[in-house]
Amino acid sequence: MTEPILAVEGVGRKFGGFVALEGVTTAFLPGRVTSIIGPNGAGKSTFFNILSGVIEPSSGSIRFKGRDLTGTRQHAFVHLGIARSYQITTIFPELSAHENVRVAAQAGRSRYNIWTNRDRFGELSDRADAALDAVGLASKRWESARLLAHGQQRALEIAIALVSDPEVLLLDEPTAGMGPEETKEMVALLEKLAAQRTILLVEHKMKMILGLSDRILVLHHGRLIADGTPQDIQTDPEVRRVYLGQNDGYA
Ligand code: ADP
Ligand code: MG
Fold first, then answer.
1. Which domain holds residue 152?
2. How large is the greatest C-alpha to C-alpha distance in the chain, in angstroms?
3. 210: Cα within 13 Å, side-chain hemisphere
4. Which residue in 20, 44, 84, 149 has a CA-CA distance of 20 to 30 Å to 220?
5. What is the 90 CA–ligand 1 centroid distance (Å)?
6. What is the pLDDT of residues 110-130, one digit of tens each?
């Protein structure tokens, strides 16, 4: 039997007295695409923040390949092979695409190798090029990030996450703000990336999710209310009631 690459047990998160996430237990198998859906405020980004070490859970634990990561810093998550992109753009607009990725490559490793020399610069630069190539931005690498089209900026964020060569890639709404054409390109990119790693996705575009996912988790008011194949989720009455029924993108 395949062991999960990432697993959480009873994770919850409070902000002050507000419970954003509660009692989530689940595990992710390597090489699969899992989407996390749910209405706004359901706790999807909070769950992602916990899975990627950005915030600590208030309760419960998280394991990567059987190793307990609860309470360790995000840097350790990245180093072990868990990387993410954000719902909000985090690129430096005045830097080139290449510089954005190279800076991320350097930041991701600096705690483990403080010696920066010319060889190392070359290595970082090569890795940045490889990540840009992987997302189809090789020809744009010297372009200022702010001059890239919206879809290209989102692809750049994925390149930034990819430069650490993560085994688990978490993407928070990678098609946010995209029209149908850009969305199609992003789906093609995600399919390509999924061949080589475990992908966790937060998305709202149902057609895309149903086509791309091996498995779908549904959060509602911070609780996991469903977990199954796209087929299971589409026919789950509770999911239809709280989410699918009110989602225009579904059909
Ligand atoms: P989603 O991504 O599903 O839209 P979030 O995980 O961003 O939902 O948020 C879940 C709930 O937790 C929301 O009500 C949100 O306002 C609250 N929340 C998220 N982050 C914080 C925070 N840092 N401080 C206070 N409340 C937060
Ligand atoms: Mg969110």
1. 82-165
2. 59
3. 13
4. 84
5. 18
6. 444 555 556 677 889 999 999
